[in-house]
């Protein structure tokens, strides 16, 4: 177990390093000079040069890379070009909102996916299964931001149940979470259903039947327990997608989360903030799938021994 | 308490397909078996001969998905099991009639501990809580000669023999009056086979329960059965008390089966193999289903299904050629 965790930790560090390098290069290859953005179009060349020197963007690429990596090693993401604030502080201030959205969407999607996936599998090729499958087909085709707009029109414009935009307590998080949750539930339902159908055809189900166990026990205790194992791994990856989805849906609902922070940073060519943001999301993604792996090994007795 | 028997009469099980152009699989054709109380009745035959389907039909657990047509009757305690509702059947399964399966690694749930898998039978039939069932689970484990710590183990942590012992404990935890053992030793090593067989024989004798013992292996059957029925292509071709069957086999198929088993009396003589393959349930030959593989087959065998005739006390067989074969030392 210790070895397993160290191995995954090593992979996490490697992932962050690769992401850091790639984003460093991309940010500098993409046209646009932060000094120009800060100084404005009418600035004199010597002003621009002064700003470049101050930001350090006039130094050789390798030197910049070295400074940035050295900082990263000390968990220092540097300071924003535009505001001069610490990048990590900026991100951590916005992260709770985005994380809450992603988590709420995740919980909702699982709450939808497990019961409906199970019902669909148990009542395969019956009316309820076709209905659930139709729902997943629509859910897979509809992007969450579009769903967010529709929800806004329905519940904020038509009936004033939830705030139209901005942050105003828990109620302003409901619609974006629902939009995220519904969108993600579609795929998860299909995975739960497929996994459940597979488990229900296993021989141990025949044994459970022969023991005279009630149907409910056979479905939940015997089949679902095994069916959820592959779902855990996939759900971990889904959570990463939800973080990305949350960043987008914040725009629809005008919520001050990571999304707006990163978009502004990109248009300002705020290199440290863009780099820090990408690394942060990559790290969170890695940590979550790491946790999913740990959970998997705790739930699956066959992995636990080895 | 008097133990009941199970009386299967004219059982026919046909698997049908959604597609009407595919012929139905006639897995069991007109099978009658009387399993006397407290006795071990062995059902012998090659794979695909309908042994397992017969046993599963008793419990009403023939493939959950499959479309099945079942005819005949199965009497148990004065009731026809084929006419019971789901709930009535469920209260019999595991409690009065239990089943032991062939491959414990596939028939035990991989992610539930052995203790829970045994205890949940008590939970289902007597409403016992997990805690309350612990004592009985411990008793059962020692009855099958497993240490009590096995209760907390998962199936993959046990050897094949231990898993099969756990499976037996699971089947017998409610003291059933009847047990259906579907090739319980086939997946095990030969030495372990012997131990499991002895354990089963002892538990059966102690509790005087009836047993339907399914096997393709006559040597295994000889040590445990009171009565033997030989099945071929969904029918019983010969049925007799054990000693009678081994001493005086009548049906050519039974004789061939006996010749293909290594036995001490035949030391030095070659083992023979039955040529050809057992037919599948969708393509059962006309007449006597065994005729394509039978060295004695004549015209009538190809045309007419032989009737079941009685040749001695509890000894019956279905073959046109019996009597014409007698004296044949083969």
Can you put this structure into words, describing what you see?
The complex is a heterodimer of chains A (306) and B (330). Chain A has helices at residues 2-29, 34-39, 45-55, 61-73, 87-122, 127-141, 144-158, 171-200, 203-210, 215-252, 258-267, 271-299, 301-305. The mean pLDDT of chain A is 88. By secondary structure, chain A is mainly α. Chain A has a single domain (87-305), classed as MetI-like fold (Orthogonal Bundle). Chain A starts with a helix and ends with a helix. Helix content of chain A is 80%, strand content 0%. In chain A, helix 1 runs antiparallel to helix 12 (271-299) and helix 5 packs antiparallel against helix 6 (127-141). By secondary structure, chain B is α/β, with parallel strands linked by helices. Chain B is 32% helix and 22% strand. Chain B contains eleven helices and twelve strands. Chain B has an eight-stranded mixed sheet with strand order 6-7-8-3-9-10-12-11, with helices on both faces. In chain B, a hairpin with a 2-residue loop joins strand 4 (67-76) and strand 5 (79-80).
């Amino acid at each position: 177990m210790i070895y397993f965790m160290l191995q995954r930790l090593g992979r996490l560090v490697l992932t962050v390093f690769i992401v850091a390098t790639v984003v460093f290069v991309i940010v500098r290859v993409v046209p646009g000079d932060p000094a120009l953005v800060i100084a404005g179009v009418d600035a004199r060349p010597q002003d621009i040069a002064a700003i470049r020197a101050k930001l350090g963007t006039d130094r050789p690429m390798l030197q910049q890379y070295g400074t940035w990596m050295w900082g990263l090693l000390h968990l220092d993401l540097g300071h924003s070009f535009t505001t001069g604030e610490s990048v990590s502080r900026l991100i951590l201030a916005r992260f709770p909102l985005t994380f809450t959205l992603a988590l709420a969407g995740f919980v909702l999607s699982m709450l939808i996916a497990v019961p409906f996936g199970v019902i669909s599998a148990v009542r395969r090729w019956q009316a309820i299964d076709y209905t659930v499958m139709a729902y997943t087909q629509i859910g897979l085709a509809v992007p969450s931001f579009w769903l967010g707009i529709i929800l806004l029109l329905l519940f904020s414009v038509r009936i004033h149940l939830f705030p139209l935009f901005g942050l105003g307590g828990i109620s302003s998080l409901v619609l974006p979470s629902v939009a995220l949750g519904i969108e993600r539930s579609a795929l998860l339902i299909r995975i739960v259903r497929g996994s459940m159908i597979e488990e229900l055809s296993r021989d141990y189900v025949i044994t459970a039947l022969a023991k005279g166990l009630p149907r409910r026990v056979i479905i939940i205790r015997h089949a679902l327990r095994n069916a959820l194992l592959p779902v855990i791994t996939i759900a971990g990856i889904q959570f990463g997608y939800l973080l990305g989805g949350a960043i987008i849906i914040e725009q629809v609902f005008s919520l001050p989360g990571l999304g707006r922070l990163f978009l502004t940073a990109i248009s300002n060519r705020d290199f440290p903030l863009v780099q820090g943001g990408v690394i942060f999301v990559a790290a969170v993604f890695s940590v979550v799938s790491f946790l999913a792996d740990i959970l998997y090994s705790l739930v699956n007795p066959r992995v636990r021994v080895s | 308490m008097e133990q009941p028997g199970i009386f299967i009469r004219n059982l026919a099980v046909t698997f049908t397909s959604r597609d009407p152009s595919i012929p139905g699989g006639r897995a069991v054709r007109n099978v009658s078996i009387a399993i006397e109380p407290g006795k071990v009745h062995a059902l012998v035959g090659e794979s695909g001969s309908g042994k397992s389907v017969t046993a599963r039909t008793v419990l009403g657990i023939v493939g959950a998905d499959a479309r099945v047509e079942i005819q005949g009757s199965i009497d148990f305690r004065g009731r026809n099991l084929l006419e019971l509702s789901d709930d009535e059947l469920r209260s019999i399964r595991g409690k009065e009639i239990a089943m032991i399966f062939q491959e414990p690694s596939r028939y035990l749930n991989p992610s539930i501990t052995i203790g829970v898998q045994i205890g949940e039978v008590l939970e289902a039939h007597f409403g016992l809580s997990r805690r309350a069932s612990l004592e009985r689970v411990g008793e059962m484990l020692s009855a099958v000669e497993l240490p009590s710590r096995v209760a907390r183990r998962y199936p993959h942590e046990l050897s094949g023999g231990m898993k099969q012992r756990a499976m037996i404990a699971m089947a017998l935890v409610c003291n059933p009056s009847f047990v259906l053992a579907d090739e319980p030793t086939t997946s095990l090593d030969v030495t372990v086979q012997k131990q499991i067989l002895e354990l089963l024989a002892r538990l059966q004798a102690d509790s005087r329960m009836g047993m339907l013992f399914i096997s393709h292996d006559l040597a295994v059957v000889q040590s445990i059965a009171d009565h033997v029925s030989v099945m071929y292509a969904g029918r019983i071709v010969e049925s007799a008390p054990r000693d009678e069957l081994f001493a005086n086999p009548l049906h050519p198929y039974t004789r061939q089966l006996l010749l293909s088993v290594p036995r001490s009396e035949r030391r030095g003589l070659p083992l023979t193999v039955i040529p050809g393959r057992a037919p599948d349930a969708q393509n059962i030959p006309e007449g006597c289903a065994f005729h394509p593989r039978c060295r004695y087959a004549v015209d009538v065998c190809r045309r007419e299904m032989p009737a079941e005739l009685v040749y001695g006390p509890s000894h019956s067989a279905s073959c046109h050629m019996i009597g014409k074969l007698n004296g044949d030392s083969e």
